[in-house]
């Protein structure tokens, strides 16, 4: 489970600094997020050095919690006004630049998001294994307007705490902007975080060209994945005891 304190590896809020502007301009078009295909990538000039690291991210949650909307939010695409059940398996791409705190090295994280409808996974046994196969991270979603979806996440946590499992898991609460209709209290969120040691990220509201809402989630996802890979590489190089 992710335990990396925010900002311990990457420069916090680097996306707000003037230094990052040239890098973030490569994922923007006319001040809006650029849509990338599965085989596309930002074109970097020779003076900007940034290695690309790639990860598969599975978005998991009950039907209606906002999996497709979150994928759209992270990629900067238009969020559907009307909920519809994802009829199959959808993939999308997010590029996110970060700066390492110690070395000053800039990395471009390439997240391939996988989203699959709950009904489709129930009908076809191969769908869930395909989404989870070689996944580097799973975003566990619940809706602030659906207490049952929060209970579902809580019930899943005991089987997701295998220390040998190299899959990073983050919990995301959607529809946080609909606070007048919330079914999940702040005390429940606090208790969940204290019990499992996992932060809960909140998303909601309209998509804009700003990075403020999605930056904490993308930074946490990138930081925990990078930390895990570095720790695994270090353990692999260590001589056996």
TrEMBL record:
Source species, domain of life: Eukaryota
Keywords of this entry: Cell projection, Cilium, Cilium biogenesis/degradation, Cytoplasm, Cytoskeleton, Exocytosis, GTP-binding, Nucleotide-binding, Protein transport, Transport
Keyword RNA-binding: no
Compartments in which it is found: Cytoplasm, Cytoskeleton, Cilium basal body
GO MF term (any one): GTP binding
Main location: cytoplasm
Pfam families found in the cross-reference section: Ras (PF00071)
InterPro entries (alphabetical): P-loop_NTPase, RSG1, Small_GTPase
Biological process annotations from GO: cell projection organization; exocytosis; protein transport
Family of the protein in this entry: Belongs to the small GTPase superfamily. Rab family.
Protein name: Ciliogenesis and planar polarity effector 2
């Amino acid at each position: 489970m992710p335990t990396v304190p925010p900002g311990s590896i990457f420069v916090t809020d680097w996306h707000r600094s003037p230094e990052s502007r040239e890098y973030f301009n490569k994922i923007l078009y006319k001040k809006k997020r650029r849509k990338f295909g599965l085989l596309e990538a930002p074109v970097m000039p020779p003076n900007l050095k940034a290695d690309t690291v790639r990860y598969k991210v599975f978005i998991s949650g009950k039907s209606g919690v906002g999996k497709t909307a979150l994928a759209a939010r992270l990629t900067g695409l238009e969020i559907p006004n009307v909920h519809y059940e994802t009829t199959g398996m959808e993939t999308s791409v997010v590029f996110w630049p970060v700066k390492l705190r110690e070395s000053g090295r800039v990395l471009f994280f390439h997240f391939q998001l996988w989203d699959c409808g709950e009904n489709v996974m129930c009908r076809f046994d191969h769908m869930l294994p395909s989404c989870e196969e070689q996944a580097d991270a799973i975003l566990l979603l619940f809706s602030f307007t659906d207490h049952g979806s929060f209970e579902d996440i809580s019930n899943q946590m005991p089987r997701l705490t295998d220390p040998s499992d190299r899959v990073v898991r983050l919990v995301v609460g959607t529809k946080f902007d609909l606070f007048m209709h919330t079914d999940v209290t702040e005390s429940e969120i606090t208790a969940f975080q204290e019990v499992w040691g996992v932060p809960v990220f909140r998303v909601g509201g309209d998509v804009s060209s700003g990075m403020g809402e999605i930056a904490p989630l993308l930074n946490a996802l990138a930081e925990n994945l990078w930390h895990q890979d570095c720790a695994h590489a270090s353990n692999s190089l260590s001589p056996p005891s």
